[in-house]
Design a protein that fits this description.
Layout: H1 2-27, H2 37-79, H3 85-98, H4 102-113, H5 117-141, H6 145-153, H7 159-169, H8 171-195, H9 201-210, H10 214-249
Helix pairs in contact: 1-10, 2-5, 2-8, 2-10, 4-5, 5-8, 8-9, 8-10, 9-10
């Protein structure tokens, strides 16, 4: 699974690189605008190790931010799964918070919290929170009629059991959603670093952009893509293992 994801990313990435080089040589652009294959390879040798450390720093923030958003999405999803006044209030509040664009909120966060870990964490969590919430709300609001009917008829249904049944029956969807949200968490962290942070791969990309060094940006994008592909594959694998263990225990 991990190798397949890396292969798929490599195919997409190098197809994009090939198109970029085609544009370069078709239009006769200089290496200052688009570096050639040799120059890009040389730049990769110079910055790959440092960028790998930067990506690791960014990934650590993204992972924490993703699981913070997942935690709150589950809380809101569980509380808002019923068509009650309280459930409707929870959902409306969650939707309204998302209505504010992150570019408008980010400067406030940087002013209040500075440009360190917590600001990057909060922005990453905010960006991947809403898609998680929508998916979890949809899953938790949809009854598993055949199974739930039995427990209701025997008067053994509790809200904890209801949540457990719906989560288990939709575990494949949850795994896909959580895996997909990893991309949003990583993108959110990079955006935060690009705006005003002083660490991480987003900060390095900002410096490369100021230097008009496209080669460094291409190397950074490659390392980011490989890292996200591995992380998503790992999340999917964990989801399959949990479902298998949970299924045997039932």
């Amino acid at each position: 699974m991990l190798l397949r994801r890396m292969y798929q990313f490599g195919l997409i990435y190098f197809s994009g690189i090939a198109f970029l080089f085609l544009v370069k040589y078709s239009l006769g652009l200089s290496d200052y605008v688009i570096p050639g294959p040799g120059a890009t390879w040389q730049i990769a040798g110079q910055v790959a190790l440092r960028y790998a450390r930067d990506v690791s720093n960014t990934l650590a923030v993204a992972v924490v931010g993703q699981f913070v958003s997942l935690f709150f999405a589950f809380i809101v999803g569980i509380c808002g799964r019923q068509a009650t006044w309280f459930g409707s209030l929870i959902k409306v509040a969650a939707y309204n918070v998302q209505a504010y664009p992150i570019v408008a909120i980010a400067p406030i966060l940087f002013i209040l919290l500075g440009d360190g870990f917590f600001t990057r964490l909060l922005i990453a969590a905010m960006i991947c929170y809403f898609p998680l919430l929508l998916s979890i709300l949809g899953i938790m609001s949809e009854p598993v009629i055949d199974i739930e009917h039995f427990y209701r008829q025997t008067q053994r249904m509790r809200w904890q059991l209801e949540v457990k049944i719906r989560a288990f029956e939709n575990l494949h969807k949850l795994t896909t959603v959580i895996s997909g949200s990893a991309t949003l968490a990583m993108a959110g962290t990079i955006v935060a670093e690009f705006i005003a942070a002083n660490a991480g791969i987003g900060y390095s990309i900002r410096i490369a952009l100021y230097q008009s060094d496209l080669g460094k940006i291409l190397v950074a994008l490659f390392i980011i893509g490989i890292t996200v592909s591995l992380y998503q594959g790992l999340l999917e694998r964990i989801g399959y293992v949990i479902k298998a263990i949970w299924g045997r225990s039932q």
